[in-house]
Amino acid sequence: MFDLINGLPVHPLVVHAVVVLLPLATLGTIALVVRPAWRRPYGPLLLAITAVATVLIPVATSSGEALEKHVGDPGEHAELGDQLIWFALPMLVLLAALVWLDRRTPPGTDTASRVPQTGALKAVAVLALVAALATSVQVYRVGDSGARAAWGDQVASK
What we know:
The protein is mostly helical. It has five helices and two strands. The protein has helices at residues 10-34, 39-71, 76-83, 85-104, 111-156; strands at residues 4-5, 8-9. A two-stranded antiparallel ribbon has the order 1-2.
């Protein structure tokens, strides 16, 4: 199913979407943690971007497995790619919780009624930050290993 489109492998096409959207999602998550005022206007858009990137990860791994049948085993890249979903999913869930908790309290609510939510909001924000940083590192590892698998022999031999 995720093998070829017009004779071209699907994997590089889908991977480029993940490589653009997932780092954008991690940077956006970090921005929403650092700048709480951006959560209401940009939170839903960032949540949609993160969801699309997360949904595309299994498509990228499936298409990578199909490509593997044509070009051979990419080694470590396949293992790292399979692990990426386990970094993106927690980030997606934590981002959704951050946006939801932030929207749960109407603007202008007095501080006394926000105290319990503020603690939960801060905890979720810290966890979302950690998940975004971990996802960024994993995206780099997957991309680096993929570039080495695809181009390492050709560039190193010149």
